[in-house]
Amino acid sequence: MLRRDFLQQLTLASSGLLAAPLLAQSSSADPKVMLGIDVLAAEGFKRIQGQRIGLVTHPAGVNNRGVKTIDVLRRAPGVRLVKLFGPEHGIYGDAPADVPVHNVIDRRTGLPVFSLYGKTRKPTPEMLTGLDAMLVDLQDVGARSYTYISCMRYVLEACFEAGIKVYILDRPNPLGGLKVDGPGLDKQWMSYVGFFQVPYVYGLTIGEMALAATRNYSWLNLSEAGRRKGNLEVIPMRGWRRAMRWHDTGLRWIPTSPMIPDAFSAEGYAMTGLGCQLGGFTHGVRTLYPFRFLRFPKKSAQEIAAALRRFPLPGFAFNPLRLNDGTEGVYIAVKDWEALRPTALSFYMMHLACLWNRSNPFAAAKGNAYDLFNKHTGSEAFFDDLRKNGARTNIASWLARWNADAAQFQQWARQFWLYV
Q1: The pLDDT of residue 215
Q2: HSE (CB half, 13 Å, CA atoms) of 242?
Q3: Under 8 Å between Cβ of 190 and 256
Q4: Could you tell me if 286 and 321 are in contact, meaning their C-beta atoms sit under 8 angstroms apart?
Q5: Domain topology for 36-247
Q6: Average of pLDDT values for 46-62?
């Protein structure tokens, strides 16, 4: 049974425990979308002919036929790929989250690989020596705390200061380009898991985000010389439309990190990631359904599903599910993508965590736990309310405030749209 067929079955189920089969993921033999790397190739690589090129990439850096961008560039006539740069998880995606990655020589290509998640997260002048241009080919997931847009920001800053042109090979936002949702980011909580003051779900491609950053230099830490020398070019996709989610593109998903093996988990990351930082909920990482499979200590799947159904969460379906190993939980299905607000689920999960714990689990948060929550969620005022009032926190009021802010951001961001 193909995974998408099974997920449709889950969406239709309203009660009882469904058993989970082993799943396969389908892909199209004829992708509808040409990625930035495909457009570059279709033009005969004329933009980078004769230049010494660096490439920031990872396993999902492939063309629309699944060929690694590294290999596409190495085979390209007149192109000299001389250095590779890897983000969190490395260029092969095999490093766990939050684990430093070292500089190495790539055994497959013989090229030097410089880690941008090791001793430094910003390319040093020495790393950039000898480059004429830097290409960035990173598949983002559309949520602010996923670190690849932070990596992109550091690359822009370093290359602009060095006078090296940056090309962004654009890629789809798997959540589409019309969904903007969730809290913004307080300036004091900016970090590598939140380097841009945007709503948690921001509705831009990585190329559009780069354009917004370079046209609004308050988003970048640059000297006056860096601003003058900065040179960015986004190579846009062909065939992508803002209303497209990943399954509309015909592209095969390549895991962007160990815990995001498919596009369903990329969507789930925006839905449940914030709600599982503190409080007791788990989101199914290391199961068949990462970020889509909720459990809570001493609560049955039916109890969790029933509680979630009582909240104003249009567009979601909450379906009790038993995995093959007997584990029970609630699968988070999408019933109506246009109707749902992805992050709203996480905040009602926090409300339930306050109800179901003997004491407010957020009240005792301090140190690293407190910092990480605010760095990811972005709103210290909300967390202070939650810590003080627990289950009495007016979640609906906060969501209404954030929805209004998100709508205002989306209107402002339209000036950077490359696609309709």
Answers
A1: 84
A2: 16
A3: no
A4: no
A5: Rossmann fold (3.40.50)
A6: 97
SS (H, E, C) the chain: CEHHHHHHHHHHCCCCCEECCCCECCCCCCCCCECHHHHHHHCCCHHHCCCEEEEEECCCCECCCCCEHHHHHHHCCCCEEEEEEECCCCCCCCCCCCCCCCCEECCCCCCEEEECCCCCCCCCHHHHCCCCEEEEECCCCCECCCCHHHHHHHHHHHHHHHCCEEEEECCCCCCCCCCCECCCCCHHHCECCECCCCCCECCCCHHHHHHHHHHCHHHCCCCHHHHHHCCEEEECCECCCCCCCHHHCCCCCCCCECCECCHHHHHHHHHHCHHHCCCCCECCCCCCCCCCEEEECCECHHHHHHHHHCCCCCCEEEEEEECCCCCEEEEEEECCCCCCCCCHHHHHHHHHHHHHCCCCCCCCCCHHHHHHHHHHHCCHHHHHHHHHHHHHCCHHHHHHHHHHHHHHHHHHHHHHCCCC
Q: Are the beta carbons of 419 and 239 closer than 8 angstroms? A: no
Residues carrying CATH 3.90.1150.140, the chain: 9-24+252-416
Under 8 Å between Cβ of 111 and 81: yes
pTM value? 0.94
- Which pLDDT value is given to residue 95? 75
Least-confidence region, from 162-176, 213-227, 281-295: 213-227
Alpha carbon distance 393, 350 (integer Å): 10
The CATH 3.40.50.12170 domain(s) of the chain lie at 36-247
- CATH node for 9-24+252-416: 3.90.1150.140
How many Å apart are CA 283 and CA 124, to the nearest integer?
A: 37
pLDDT at 5 over 60: no
- The mean pLDDT of the chain is 93
Residue 17, φ and ψ in degrees, nearest 5: -105, 115
Q: How confident is the model at residue 60 (pLDDT cuts 50, 70, 90)?
A: very high
Q: State percent of the chain over pLDDT 90.
A: 86
* Token pair recorded at residue 37: 């790397």
- Arithmetic mean of pLDDT, 73-86: 97
